[in-house]
Amino acid sequence: MDIFLAILAIVLIIIGFIGDVLPVIPGTIVTYAALIVLHFTNAIQYSAATLIVTGVLCVVITLMDYIVPAWGTKKFGGTKSGVRGSTIGLIVSVVVLPILGITIGPFGLVGLLAGPFVGAYCGEKLAGVDDEMALRSAFGSFIGFLAGTFMKLSYTFVICFMIVRDLVIALIR
Fold first, then answer.
1. Residues 6+ apart with CB under 8 A from 76
2. Which H or E run includes 98?
3. Which helix (H) or strand (E) holds 16?
4. pLDDT at 112
5. pLDDT in tens, 68-88
6. What are phi and psi of 2, to 5 degrees?
7. Could you tell me the sign of the dihedral formed by the alpha carbons of 109, 111, 113, 114, in that order?
8. Following DSSP, what letter does each residue of 34-84 receive, concatenated?
9. pTM here?
């Protein structure tokens, strides 16, 4: 059973990394689930403090991932239309591009990165904002998206390190 749970934890970490980049999958939550799964093995046990701290960080990062892009848009002078456009652009880049068959390679990544930017710009333009301000808003949205992705990836890297370290130690024993 321990081997099955260890393999499941590794699969969840991989899915967590994918979810950190693709907003369709809640990457930090899946990553935390990998830690919980590994905790139920006989070979690896985490303290309550470790589980609570990593769980609280998971919740905070998940919430911040929704707040930071909107904050970035507003910080750079964007309006609610820019924030909505950024969200729509992100959804379009995650849903429409795969339907068109553009999911892997540079075009999939470019689409994922450009979606919030283009969406914020279009949202601002539809609201009647001038070009310079619309571009600033779009740039803020892009920076916010990158910051949120960086937070999620950082969390997943730390949890991944913990899991790999503990699996190696358990194998050595």
1. 136, 137, 139, 140, 141, 143
2. helix 80-99
3. helix 2-21
4. 72
5. 877 787 788 888 888 888 878
6. -60, -40
7. positive
8. HHHHHHTSSS----HHHHHHHHHHHHHHHHHHHHHHHHHHHHTT--HHHHH
9. 0.79
